[in-house]
# Entry
Amino acid sequence: MATWTVRQERLRTLLTGDSGSQTFVPAPGTAGLQFVRTDGQSMWPSADVLRLPRGPASAKPFCFPPKEVVGHYADHPASAATATAAPATTIVGVRACELQAIAYLDRVFGQPPVSDPFYREHRAAQTIISVDCVEPHETCFCTLVDGRPYATEGFDLNLTPIDGGFVVEAGTDAGRLLVEQAGDAVTPASPEMLAERDRLRRAAVEKLSVTNEPYQPARPPSEALAAAEDAAVWDRFAQDCVECGACTQICPTCHCFYLFDRGAREDGAFDRLRAWDSCMWSGYSRMAGAPTMKPNPRAQFRSRFANRFLHKYLWSPQQWDKLGCVGCGRCTEACAGRIDIRRVIREVSA
# Structure
């Protein structure tokens, strides 16, 4: 893979190669890094910002919005909403775990037997510029789920913060075009720069290994969960959960949604929307009809609580040949009950 280097003061030249694209960059907020839209003149990330741990918000909303219109209804027969072309969007600062999550969502929404036109439009309009995690978050555990704190695929451009600038890798033709358009802002990376990049990557992996050593599963999670699918152990873990749904709403791979109708407009028509759902909520999987006719298949909370882990570590590999967890640790960070997903998997596996 061809590599270049760009100095910090020339980074904007590289990232604004597509002037017709709306660009989102990471910016410090009260809860950590957040994606904000830049006008091309301000809010550009510095090397220090791109060295910070990943923020609480993932790139999932750019692919799968929290709420969107999927149908219009009037007096005439119902018609599905047409997926309009999404605006060209450049997302800067996406982490390796999020790229794995997007690859997972591509399987769920972007491939047969069900291929979602709304999702496909969002993805087709995106340019993704990822960045290495040189300072992993304390709850990150990508190395426990066969991940790495740096990307090897799934990006258009990847940045590794080094002293005074960045090592740049192009993963697609779109990324190489950005490098070409940047002109003399980018230069070939020297062997010393590549050595620094590799050193930083090894250091990040080592830090994650040390942090997550206490959580190393005793056996593969899929094997452990298959044996504990209906075990009473879930009652103990579920006692700490307050059913707020923060873990699923912040997760970059959770993709459950529900449909609802929005009231009539002036022309008498109304819209059908879809919005993120959560298996932590009491209405999840509830079915319409008389209770005796269509019982709730997950009436007990312990069943919904277990569903989150079983889906990610057992059923997703069976259905999609991919883990439904990328080890970003956001669920642990957001949990009001201080439930650490690493601890749950470790204890179930033991």
